[in-house]
Specification:
Shape: rod-shaped
Strand content: under 5%
Structural class: mainly alpha
Distance between the termini: 71 Å
Oligomer: single chain
Largest sheet: none
Radius of gyration: 25 Å
Order of helices and strands: H
Length: 61
């Protein structure tokens, strides 16, 4: 991090870098949630296929 002798410049620099970090963090969280949703959807599809293929269904009464 760069500290300049002028305190106002330093404060504005720190503020802008914090906002950028916050934006990057939001983007990472968004991507993580999308990937987690996709992986859960894929796992659910695999499990549904396995249960359909195995024939372990309970017979209807």
């Amino acid at each position: 991090m760069i500290f300049i002798s002028d305190s106002m410049t330093t404060i504005s620099y720190l503020r802008s870098s914090l906002e950028k970090v916050e934006e990057d963090t939001k983007a990472v969280i968004f991507i993580y949630k999308k990937l987690r949703f996709l992986s859960q959807t894929a796992m659910a599809g695999i499990l549904n296929r396995k249960s359909a293929d195995s024939g372990d269904r309970v017979p209807d009464n």
